[in-house]
Structures are given as structure tokens and as C-alpha cells.
Design a protein that fits this description.
alpha/beta, 6-stranded parallel β-sheet, two-stranded parallel sheet, 37% helix, binds flavin mononucleotide
Amino acid sequence: MNKKVILDIITVIVIILAGVGIYFVTNKTGSTAPKTTKEPDEKVTVGDGKTKIDANGKKSLVVYFSIPETTDAKKKMTTEEENSAIVVDGEVLGNTQYVAMLISEKTGADLYRIEPKTPYTTNHKNLVDQASKEQSDNARPEIKNKISNFADYDIIYVGYPIWWSDMPQIMYTFFELYDFTGKTIIPFSTHGGSGLSGTVSTIKNKLSNTTVEENAFTMSRDDMEAAPDEVDTWLKEIGTID
Ligand SMILES: Cc1cc2nc3c(=O)[nH]c(=O)nc-3n(C[C@H](O)[C@H](O)[C@H](O)COP(=O)(O)O)c2cc1C
């Protein structure tokens, strides 16, 4: 083999090794650095323009994310579907959705559901896998629409299920989409055993110049029947209803 052939072989090996190196470095960085939060194209106005103002002159909004794994009240549910949903007056609701509706009913706050631009699967295994991947990618799943009158609200109740001991990644998208300066955030969640999983501190660390209520509400998916009473007791504790 002459020198030129040997040199060519070495060059090819160096290029391949460099490529493999770049691949690993890029992927490692990608797994920890957050993906970019994209502005939704659609806008939505929340409430009917007659939002209730509380005794302190404040306006409240309940924002929630919830994925019931079925919405069909007639079918026999699998255990996973039962875990993720509650039937109220013949309607299948997600656990967090139910708590959100109760808070809205009891406080008169407007209600807004965070919907993903690309709907989540309702197949349990696939949902669990997707949530895990989103978390390890530090993804920012896109939200379908943006609240145009967000600035009007002073108190924002924010609800989410616990996914993999954290908030679903779409909640990070939500917290990065809006200006929370001067607002009060009141977190609530439902879970399968892990409680709030440190999510109140996570929210506090993410938002500066924002008051975050430490006495957040959390409820196990196994206790959902008690939600009306528990929500009532909690709202009285934090002083938003009498
Ligand atoms: C993808 C996924 C991950 C979950 N991870 C956890 C967890 O880490 N800890 C926990 O207590 N429950 C976990 N759960 C259970 C949900 O928090 C619980 O069922 C919740 O009430 C669902 O709320 P939703 O019906 O409003 O979506 C998980 C559920 C799913 C679908």
C-alpha cells in the first residue's frame, strides 16, 4: 500500500470518528437543553366578558391540562381508563378537569383548558412512553391556542396531572408563553400516589415577580368522589371563598 492510500484511509477514519463524536455531543445537549416554546397561531378570548370580580377587586382564571384516557361513558372502562377519569352526571371527565370545574364553579373564575396542538394518544402505554420521551427531551409540546385576554386576570389557578414525578412538559410551555408579573398562581394537581412531587417549587423557580401559593391542592385519583368537599375546604383555607 502506498503512502497516499494509507493517508486517505486515515482521513476517512478521522471523518467518521468526528461525525460519531458530533452526533453524541448534539444528542446529549438536546436531552437537557429545553426545546423552544413556540407561539400558538390561534388566539382565544376566555370568559364571556363578564368575568366575576371578587371582594378584593380581583379577576380569577382556572387553567388546566387533563387527559382522560377515554371520553366514552357507555363503554366498560379498562383499569387504566378508570384511573384517569371520573364520570359525573353521565359525562366522562379527566381527574384534573373535574377539580378545575369545581374550582371554577365555587369561585366564579373563568375556565380555560390547555389543549395540545397535536392531540395526545389515549392509549395508556403509548401515552406513558410519549410523556417519558418528552421529559427526557425537555420538550415544549405546542399549545393549540393563546389566551388573548390573559393580562386581565390577577389570580390564576393552574392544574395538571403528575406525569413521571413532574408536571407534564406542556405545562412548561404554558409557563413560558405568558407574562406572569404581578399575578398570583395557585397550583392544583391530581396524582396516582406521588402527591405534588415538588412541582410547586418548580413553578416558583420558573416564575419571578409572581406570587405562588404554597398551600397547593393535590388529590389522589383514588379519592375523586371526595373532590367537591376537599376543594371547598381548601378554597376556604387559602381564603378565596368564605
Ligand atoms: C404519562 C403518565 C405518567 C404518570 N406519572 C405519574 C407519577 O409519576 N406519579 C403519580 O402519582 N401518578 C402518575 N400518573 C397518574 C396521573 O397523575 C393520575 O392518573 C392523574 O389523576 C391523571 O389526571 P388527568 O385525568 O387529569 O389527566 C401518570 C399518568 C400518566 C398518564
